[in-house]
Amino acid sequence: MAVSFVTRLLTLALGYAYPAYGCYKTLELNAPQMERLRFWCQYWILVAFLTAFESFADCALSWLPMYGEAKLAVVVYLWHPKTMGARHVYDDYLRPFLAAHEADIDRGLVELRARAADATASHLQAAVALGRACLSEVARRVSSQLQQAATSAGPAAQVR
């Protein structure tokens, strides 16, 4: 348990905080170096894909011995100055894969946006209808309560 905690802490520090600071330092140079910016963009793209993949595959992989340590090793490999793994993995694997499927991905994103817009519109219409029904019910109950109060006060209340 303690080893897992330390591994997760190191992964956060070495996989996110240190690279984020390196990216910041590169951006804040008086004349940012395009090659360094490209490297950090490649790193963050890979980390985003790995994080997305991990969210689906975590239940199948997390039980493996030294899973956390392997993940830590991968993120250090990706940014370490001696390996520059992000450049290698991005250029040799991810970029060709995305380029080969770019049209399909773009088409899927357009369809997803359209479905999301349709779903949002239908959910909004349902919420408005529910709101109207609730408001109508509240108005009916208030009206009923006011009529009961006027009836229970009797004719003396009406004279005044």
UniProtKB/TrEMBL annotation:
<protein>
    <recommendedName>
        <fullName>HVA22-like protein</fullName>
    </recommendedName>
</protein>
<comment type="similarity">
    <text>Belongs to the DP1 family.</text>
</comment>
<dbReference type="GO" id="GO:0016020">
    <property type="term" value="C:membrane"/>
</dbReference>
<dbReference type="InterPro" id="IPR004345">
    <property type="entry name" value="TB2_DP1_HVA22"/>
</dbReference>
<dbReference type="Pfam" id="PF03134">
    <property type="entry name" value="TB2_DP1_HVA22"/>
</dbReference>
